[in-house]
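Please, structure for the following, as C-alpha cells.
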Amino acid sequence: MEPDRYESNNKLYILGIICLISALSLFFFSLYIAPFLIWHLNYEVPGIVTILAANFEQQYNMSEGQANTLVWFIFFIPSLITGYIAYYVSNRIDNQIYKVGDAGKEQERKNIPPPVTRDISESAGLAFKIIFLMVAIVAIILLLQLLVQI
C-alpha cells in the first residue's frame, strides 16, 4: 500500500495543494482572458481585466498592446511560480517518503546519474518546450494582428 503523503508532512502537503489549485486557476484564467486581450472578442471577462488595461494605458502611457500583455502576464507569471512551488513541494514529500535524497547522494559519488534526476530533467525540458510554444504562438498571433492592421 502506498504511504500517506498527508501524514508524512501535513504543512507541505496543504501548501502543495493550495499552490496547485491556485496555479491551475490562474493558468486557466490567463487562457480565458487571452482572446479578449489579443483579438478584443466581446465576451464576459471580469471587470478587473479591463480596468487594469485602461489604468496601465492612462497612468503609464502604454500602448494598448503593451497594457494587454502586462495584464496577461499579471495572471500568467504567478501561475508559473505557484505551479513550480507545487512541483517542488510534491517532489520534496516524495523524497522524504522514499528516501531518494540518500540514494541520490550515493549515486552522485559514483558519478552515475540517478533515474529520478533524468526524469526530472526530461519533465523540465518538456515543460520548457510547452511554455516556449505558448509564448511563440502568442507572439505569432500578435504579429499577424499587427500585419492585418497595416
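The first helix runs from residue 5 to 8. The chain has two domains: 5-98, 111-150.
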